[in-house]
User: What shape does this take?
Amino acid sequence: MRADATHRFEFEVSGGSRPPFVCLARTRAEAQRVALHARAPVRLTRAQQLGPDEGDAQARQLVSSEGLLAPPWRDDVATIVQVLDHVRLEPDDSASIIPAAFLPADEIVARGLSACGCGWRHAGETVNRIAVEPTVSISVAMVTDGGWQLHLWSKSLPADKIDAFGWERCAGGHPVVTWMLNARPACSVWIIASEVIDALRTLADLRPSELSCVPVPRAHPSR
Assistant: This one.
């Protein structure tokens, strides 16, 4: 895990009236790699060193002030940040985040949850812990202007509960109702991690150490 960007980079994007691509990174080479998310040729127009009260440093301090970098949430936030840092550097990847991925069977019943009924054995299942049917899941990806886009899905929560939390309903085109949250360009991964944890704690009764957070390739060449 890094998430320790020290500079803000801005790129001009070729093609039409595309907005500039803006990102946080440590070096120009790293920024050029992040800028592959623009999916068009880019030209560096500005590089600005960030102060201690800006960028990742400020965002990490904010998350720390919320108590999320101390037990019991420290490891979950670190996991999300690590995966988001990977997604930031891999233009074909997004992140999949699911609460309570694996639990003992008796606890699944006691908490009013359901075991996954897909019939497949899940990677990570053990003799004592089985896959849980998620009530909420979140995907996170970087978009073409350097911002982040979060999508939240739930088939069991009342829609007004999610609406009240500040997420906006997605437009048509999705097989199920989903909600979306957009983050500005060059938003720190620490802020995104905080948004995810807050949403899952509020909407899915997430408990410490029950998080499943993995990078997911957008393209599956084998399919």
